[in-house]
Amino acid sequence: xxxxxxxxxxxxxxxxxxxxxxxxxxxxxxxxxxxxxxxxxxxxxxxxxxxxxxxxxxxxxxxxxxxxxxxxxxxxxxxxxxxxxxxxxxxxxxxxxxxxxxxxxxxxxxxxxxxxxxxxxxxxxxxxxx
Length: 130
Hints:
6 strands, about 30% helix
């Protein structure tokens, strides 16, 4: 008999939560995923996860998968913005803020440039080779 077992992600610390979100986004084929450690730069979060979706449909699907998977692990976002439009979705998990952009908005807002003095976390061991 098969069971539909839900994968649980580690949400015990900001580091673990950020890593779990990166894994979820990678599994769902988000593009150009970046993880910025912003603890020393702002009081609003410890980490920013930034990635790109190829369409508004994929952007909404990426956000939906993060919300579902992290929710199944016991944590709901404090707020989600931009979901209906699907051009830039921002998900607030308090210690981790997730930004899922379309290519045009990512180039326009350039969050990596805005937060260039933040430490970029090496996530290459977390990402699937494609």
